[in-house]
Amino acid sequence: MDIHNLKGKVTLKWLNFNKYSTQILELRKTVFVEQQGFDLSFIYMQSDNTSIHLGAFLENELVSIISYSIIKGTNPLIKALNLPDTLGYKFQPTKRVELLEFRGTRLAELVGVYAWKSFVDYYQPDYSFIELVQMHKKLALYYSSFGFKFYSENVLEGEEMTVYLQDEQSIDNIYSKFKRLLDIISTILDVNHPSLKEFLQENPNIEQPIEKKISKDNLYLKTLSFKDELPRLLAQGRLLRFIQRETLKKVIFPKGPANLLDIGCGPGLYLTSLSKNPIFKDYKFTGLDISPDMITYARLSFRKISWKEVFMILSTLIIHLMLYTQVF
What we know:
Elements: E1 10-15, H1 17-35, E2 52-58, E3 61-72, H2 76-80, E4 89-98, H3 107-123, E5 127-133, H4 140-144, E6 149-156, E7 159-166, H5 168-189, H6 196-202, H7 226-243, H8 245-250, E8 258-263, H9 269-275, E9 283-289, H10 292-301, E10 306-309, H11 314-323
Parallel strand pairs: 4-5, 8-9, 9-10
Antiparallel strand pairs: 1-2, 2-3, 3-4, 5-7, 6-7
Helix pairs in contact: 3-5, 7-9
């Protein structure tokens, strides 16, 4: 089938598994069991009820779907795969299928890219990972083009599988590519973009972002709590890292050893990203903030940097600036 034949005919939907389980399982059965020869048990996942599913419909028929598990902190799977044990979110694409006649139309690519971008926007994940069974290892090259790198070989429940990791830096590097790709395919197919925000609000059984009131804009009409501010500041740090990446390459910085002080560091994501940039090799990093909650979060999340709580008064800033003679 030609991609242009689908223009204006495809609808994307976030799916509640309890409501759409029959169609989801039937599609998995058609692809995994009847076409690829997997055992019937392969179509089921224990996490289906709490996973997020994005499907593509042609009229009323589900023709392509991707399922993602959202993980907060650690869980038995993270430990079993010996994945990085972080406090933040991780997401895992688990089952991705489409009917045979739709392969080559880029429909599955659209579903996967839109789901990925939505999760990155709302959850600000630490990383993403995939597990490929033996039959699907040929997909490793495809996933590597999206920033997934080999992580480990494992055996779970008697089955060999390979784990690939898309770390935080890879997510940032690929974000703009995915956004452009999404715009191109969406234009060709003339397809809608359903709101993940609305879906999450209607399905509280699914892992929610830290800020559950994601529909409420921050107008700064009153002081916000740490819980309310954190998602915005994390997103802001990620955005700064992305838009300044090329600019930093053009600036001539002093060679280390040197000091870099971030006044008003917030949760520390931006300063931490700078500390990983080879431009700042041999630098000592210090983050200052007046919020004890922000400093606590930074200390727990990014342990290799010095985080200090300070009072926002002029004398304090002057003292700290005098201590850091190579600050810029």
